[in-house]
Description:
Distance between the termini: 16 Å
Largest sheet: 2 strands, antiparallel
Strand order of the largest sheet: 1-2
Number of strands: 2
Shape: globular
Number of helices: 9
Strand content: 5-15%
Amino acid sequence: MLGILAIAAALSIPRATWRVFGLFTTLVHELGHAIAAILTGRVVHGIRIRRNHSGEAVSSGRGGFGSVVSGMFGYPAPAIVGAVQLWSVFNGYTAAALFGGGVVLVLTILVIRNLFGVLVVLASAAVSVLLWVFATPQVQSYALLVLGIVLLVGAVRGLGTVIAVHVRRRGQLRTSDAYLLYLRTRVPSFVWLSAFAAVIGGCVVVAVGSYAAYIAS
């Protein structure tokens, strides 16, 4: 486990490696918006992923509830997916998690609207397929553990970035989901930032608890 943590840290903390692996976190962030939109009856028109780790998920629908739910589940999405992946590995569902993630990535091709985004999705899907076809169950488990931890770290990094926008870079407020939610609901941004932090923190607790239960068993 220490080795897995070291690999995850090497991929998610240094700026050089994060330029690459952070793109997957951005993809999961935008998929969080898109899936939440679909679950609340909205229509997803497209997702874009950019080299600078920014992105957008465009959807439409009647009423404001779906828009708010969709806006809420961007920053927490990497933490949710990361915690689910770790829980799956520790509870014997590695193959199911890998297969489910691969299916979502393949379907995502249908809604990606820029070339760079297509490349990110194809690269992610290719890794999933290679693990599914060629890797042993043990290697699959190790890979999902690394990826799950990277997504959890990415969620924390993303939360820190959006908080910094509100504290130090207020000229960039329109890039913040919390500010956009404030514009839609008039609920203060700090409430939304607190909600992001609560969900992300809860996912970290679930991930650690899953590992503790696995060790105890």
